[in-house]
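User: Hi! I'm working on a homework problem where we have to compare a predicted structure to a textbook description. Could you give me the structure for the chain below?
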Amino acid sequence: MTAAVAVLIIACPCALGLATPTALLVGTGRGAQLGILIKGPQVLESTRRVDTIVLDKTGTVTTGRMVVVQVRGEVLRLAGAVEAASEHPIAAAIAARASESGQLPEVSDFVALPGLGASGKVDGHAVLVGRPQLLAEQSVVVPEDLAEAVAAAEKSGQTVAMVALDGVAAGMISVADTVKPSSAEAIRRLRALGLRPMLLTGDNAAVASAVAAEVGIARKDVIAGVLPAGKVDAVRRLQESGAVVAMVGDGVNDAAALATADLGLAMGTGTDVAIESADLTLVRGDLRSAADAIRLARRTLRTIQVNLFWAFAYNIAALPLAAFGLLNPLIAGAAMACSSLFVVTNSLRLFRFH
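Assistant: Happy to help. Predicted structure tokens:
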């Protein structure tokens, strides 16, 4: 009877039942305090395996607050009217600059062209605003002097939006973005975690390379000139090459890539659809939080593993002793209590995470 009671006490799965949920509860709670929202336990396993992290440029590595640097041609007012109907950061910058001169005219027949630009009718003119590629696709001939101005602006790291009126290239508007002060440090932290940072953007190679050089990303790890659908393809190509990919983004264009990646991290300052598609949300919008999130998730996973090891080791060691009558039920009860106490205390250590 003594042996049977001791076996029942030892076999009570308290520590085993507490091992995972307590660590998850404390880990996710600490993450919430730090502005890191973890959606589910499967995220922890993904953070352990990930070895490549793909970063969207605009709004993630950079501030996403574009400012107009140069305007060529009498196109600002009409282009601003079209861009006012768009949500893209470049469009917002052009619309804001155009509105400084007064109220913008109404736009009709507005069409957003994801990754390329937008079009609409303003004051009786068919206005096309977007990347040089957009004008090429619409068979709009660009004069040589305008093409040279575009090339010079792109070479200096600016992003160019070309403007066509009634099918004729009429000018260009170049904007510039600034890198977040914390981005370079974030890249260093990600490398310290054993991750390979890569920059993914729809901007041209010159702009992307300038940003990459500023934050410390190798030129060979820059993927530029990518349309929204191309972001998904880029993630898939990396996965097919054997990489386990994390993706960090903030915009509507990033949502599909966030869902495709093995681990999706959305900036809390971004769009709702991006946040919904991601596994982790970085509330503060600071790229350093991405490294913190991965460290916290990995620390939580290690805590769960230690808890489970202790729970199993305790049962494996004590059950034979109890079965052969070598363990007093009082001692068995104390041992069981200590085991549960260890699991809970070990989990609470996650509150010390910084």
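For your comparison, note the following. The radius of gyration is 28 Å. The chain has a mean pLDDT of 89. Good luck with the assignment!
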